[in-house]
Write a sequence for this structure.
């Protein structure tokens, strides 16, 4: 039963990752592409980590997954912010 | 059933990687390419986590954590390197 729930979480995570890729490919603007890539990738990472924790037993897995998710949610917006600031500064010159 | 879920997951992530590679190929600006490379690397981390999920091996969680940290350092380093303010302040020194 828990394997089924974990498989559903994994498939939804893969679907969110596919949405991130499609938004990266299809959106017309740089900022909208950045929006699609950052948020959908963060959601996909969180869902894949939930699936991993549900399938692999052990407390250290839960602690490592929480730390990894915290780091990802801390670093993904920072990287996107640096990229957006960079692009907005270079757009003024060209 | 588990194998079918893993197969669907892998196909989704490889399709996302192909979309990111196409965006790297024809991205108009450098920020587009860095962003697409970020997504491709995140899909690689997701594939490592999916492999660990299939095998029931907890080692791949460490791989994902360290790869995420290295990805953050790489993306922020490249985007700070391309920052015009940063470059001009370096030239003034």
């Amino acid at each position: 039963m828990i394997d089924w729930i974990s498989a559903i979480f994994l498939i939804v995570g893969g679907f969110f990752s596919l949405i991130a890729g499609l938004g990266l490919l299809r959106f017309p603007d740089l900022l909208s592409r950045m929006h699609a890539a950052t948020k959908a990738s963060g959601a996909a990472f969180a869902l894949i980590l939930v699936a991993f924790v549900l399938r692999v037993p052990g407390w250290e897995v839960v602690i490592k997954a929480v730390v990894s998710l915290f780091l990802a949610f801390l670093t993904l917006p920072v990287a996107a912010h640096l990229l957006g600031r960079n692009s907005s500064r270079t757009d003024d010159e060209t | 059933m588990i194998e079918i879920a893993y197969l669907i997951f892998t196909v989704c992530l490889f399709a996302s990687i192909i979309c990111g590679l196409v965006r790297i190929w024809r991205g108009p600006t450098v920020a587009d390419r860095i962003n697409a490379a970020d997504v491709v690397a995140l899909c690689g981390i997701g594939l490592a986590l999916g492999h660990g999920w299939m095998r029931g091996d907890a080692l791949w969680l460490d791989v994902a954590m360290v790869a995420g940290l290295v990805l953050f350092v790489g993306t922020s380093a490249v985007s700070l390197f391309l920052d015009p303010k940063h470059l001009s302040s370096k030239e003034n020194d």
